[in-house]
């Protein structure tokens, strides 16, 4: 009998945790579907809970969106890993990098578009976005370090161009603004890499 209250509390805690995860998951699903700024009511409806319960789990929308972006990071993390050494042949590095970045950008695009809007007035989301950008920039610099070193004094300018031409914004510009098909976008990425790493 002494253990009954503990089991009851544990059961409530488990249900609460599941409910909180359902709310965050609902927000994530809505962003992935292209909803730029889903409201608390939208999220509550998708999660099948009351609006009151949303704010029971999260004190404000800033905290909720921060948790949603944690889920997004968990979702895309396998695509961020390049799985390649920077001592590998140059052509291999270029090919693998372009394939991996293309896959990452395809999956991340819906949430990335929403993130750019949310980051304007959400410090937690803005910080997460900046950290993600820093990770991707560091990967590019590390992967092509041999070629960048060989550029000597021109490294700074060429590295800046390389980063700008392989970031998500470049992918969005090529895919949406220029309406290029997948092979053309990949060719443009590869061509940019080769141009910027040329002495």
Explain what this protein looks like in three dimensions.
The protein has helices at 4-32, 40-47, 51-57, 61-80, 90-118, 123-143, 145-150, 155-165, 168-177, 182-196. The chain contains ten helices and no strands. The mean pLDDT is 90. It has 199 residues and is mainly α.
Task: Provide a short characterization of the protein structure.
By secondary structure, the chain is mostly helical. The protein has 10 helices and no strands. The protein folds into 2 domains: 4-59, Arc Repressor Mutant, subunit A; 74-196.
Number of helices: 10
Give the % helix: over 70%
Number of strands: 0
Q: List the secondary-structure elements in sequence, H or E.
A: HHHHHHHHHH
**What's the oligomerization state?**
single chain
Structural class: mainly alpha
Average pLDDT for all residues: 90
Shape: elongated
> How far is the first residue's CA from the last residue's CA?
78 Å
Roughly how many Å is the radius of gyration? 21 Å
